[in-house]
Design a protein that fits this description.
The protein is mainly alpha-helical. Among the domains are: about 35 residues; about 55 residues. The chain is built from 5 helices and no strands. It is elongated, with a radius of gyration of 29 Å.
Length: about 130
């Protein structure tokens, strides 16, 4: 037989009693004598400030992503030397969009490094063309 433990935690009991007390209170007591419009204005100001903070963070992340993409994206159509391709891969290894950190590029041939670099460029170009740029 499957029995369920019906004991409630002290925190749960406290919260239930606290909520029951709040529900039973009169509006005047809850508002502590302040007019309802004042509390609404305060609440809306808090929400507006939070939205502005979130928008600023989102803009900062977008700018950082654009700066990061500019820093690792070479000019299109440019052919790399093996040394430039290795430098590009080192930069790309620090980018969260790629999983290159576990690779040891020193052990790769120049042709493999150049090929991998071209593949990454092609993927980045495809993503930008499809409108999915981060």
């Amino acid at each position: 037989m499957n029995t369920k433990d019906t004991k409630r935690s002290p925190d749960g009991i406290f919260l239930e009693s606290y909520i029951a007390e709040l529900v039973a209170m009169k509006d005047v007591d809850v508002l502590d004598g302040d007019p309802p419009g004042l509390n609404k204005e305060k609440g809306l100001a808090i929400v507006a400030a939070a939205k502005a903070t979130v928008a600023k963070r989102r803009l900062d992340r977008a700018r950082a992503a654009m700066d990061r993409e500019k820093s690792i994206t070479p000019a299109s159509g440019k052919k790399f030397s093996p040394m430039e391709a290795r430098a590009f891969l080192r930069s790309a290894a620090n980018d969260s969009r790629f999983t290159l950190a576990a690779r040891n590029h020193a052990d790769m041939s120049d042709e493999d490094v150049m090929s991998l670099c071209e593949d990454i460029q092609r993927l980045m170009a495809d993503k930008t063309d499809s409108g999915d740029a981060t």
